[in-house]
Amino acid sequence: MPLEPRESDLPRIAGALKFYQIASIITGAMLLALCAEMVMKYAFGLELELGGAYGFLAFVPTGTAQAVNLSTGILIAHGWFYVLYLFSNFRLWSMMRWEFPRLLLLASGGIVPGLSFFLETRIAREVRTYLAARAERTASASSASPSSNSVEASH
């Protein structure tokens, strides 16, 4: 039987979901940029240079960048955003009290190109559906219980 989120975590889940969604989109975009950069570097022998002799933004042969090497910058930025993405995964996973394989699936979104966009949509829909159902259950349970202000007559 799967565990349900704790009552104390319910108010924080929406914020954790928003953080996850933002981290997922940024990490996914950075991963796609990294893949494009790797193709340019290893298939065509080019790196992206910012502010060099060839202009503001130019592809130069690998190892000849004189100014800011954006290829390395993309690599580093994706690495740091992936760490942030893993933190957002762990936070949402622990609040929702999902099983461990779900955490592994979420983490793979930052290493499989395009997967983070698919997971972001699917997970957001699932969490929102769960929160709405939980709120509905809570509301129906509180309306079904007798009010403390009513007086019960018995004979």
From TrEMBL:
PANTHER family, per the entry: MEMBRANE PROTEIN (PTHR40077:SF2), MEMBRANE PROTEIN-RELATED (PTHR40077)
Membrane-crossing residue ranges in chain numbering: 20-44, 100-119
Pfam families cross-referenced by the UniProt entry: DUF3817 (PF12823)
Compartments (UniProt record): Cell membrane
Organism: Mycetocola zhadangensis
Domain DUF3817: 17-125
Alphabetically ordered keywords of this record: Cell membrane, Membrane, Transmembrane, Transmembrane helix
Keyword Cytoplasm attached: no
Record lineage: Bacteria, Bacillati, Actinomycetota, Actinomycetes, Micrococcales
Gene Ontology CC annotations of this record: plasma membrane
UniProt cross-references to InterPro entries, sorted A to Z: DUF3817_TM
Name this polypeptide is given: DUF3817 domain-containing protein
Coiled coil segments of this chain: none
Membrane topology according to the record: Multi-pass membrane protein
